[in-house]
Specification:
By secondary structure, this protein is mainly α. It contains ten helices and no strands.
């Protein structure tokens, strides 16, 4: 296939999918939202782990840039920062409660990748990532009723502040934040050993699943 046509397809297909899902709603919209969150969350998790493990844990995004290349450009610390950010965004996207925050944070991440790869004259990657950016914008449009107050503050802000916060309770909340902290801390343990990094992150992942299950139990009537 002509590279130009392929580039256009990677952008137009997400645009079409977003328009159809948001217009018709129903199960199409639910499938679009959960599918996009799963895809984008997996991409971010893989990209973050790949950087934080010195390329030992394979990700879905490429091409690979090893630490030797980054060291030549004094970008090792920057790569670690991006890796942690991608890992956090991926975790947020894969939760129902924090998925909107993950989508908001994902927009500057995609723009950073687009302009970085464009400036390096990479072929294909800017187009593909632009398609992912379209899906992210679709997620923001889906949650616009929650997002709109950033753009259009309510006339009576005191009413908005008076709304009660919906939480899962002290126990699940504490466990969720503890699990997130363990997972992110474990991602930084590669200098100790890859095995320690994987085990601590696995513990954090199990606790995250437990916190999610506990929250679901608490929310049931």
């Amino acid at each position: 296939m002509n590279p130009t046509y392929l580039c256009l397809a990677t952008i137009l297909v997400p645009i079409l999918a977003t328009a159809v899902a948001l217009h018709f709603g129903g199960w199409l919209r639910k499938l679009y939202v959960w599918g996009s969150r799963l895809l984008l969350g997996a991409l971010m998790l893989g990209g973050g782990l790949y950087k934080l493990s010195d390329n030992h844990l394979p990700g879905l995004m490429g091409p690979p840039m090893d630490h030797a290349f980054l060291a030549q450009h004094q970008l090792e610390l920057f790569a670690q920062f991006i890796g942690v950010a991608q890992l956090l965004i991926g975790l947020l996207l894969l939760t129902g409660r924090f998925a909107l925050l993950g989508a908001v944070l994902l927009v500057p991440m995609w723009l950073n990748i687009i302009f970085l790869t464009w400036s390096q004259h990479w072929t294909g990657t800017p187009c593909l990532v632009t398609g992912f950016l379209v899906l992210t914008i679709g997620l923001l449009l889906h949650d616009f009723p929650r997002l709109k107050f950033l753009f259009y503050p309510p006339e009576n802000a005191s009413e908005l502040r008076a709304l009660p916060l919906r939480t899962a309770g002290l126990g699940p909340e504490s466990l969720w934040w503890l699990a997130l902290g363990i997972t992110l801390s474990g991602a930084l343990l590669y200098p100790v050993s890859l095995a320690v990094m994987v085990r601590v992150m696995a513990l954090g992942g199990v606790l995250l699943l437990g916190a999610t299950w506990w929250s679901g139990r608490r929310s049931q009537p």
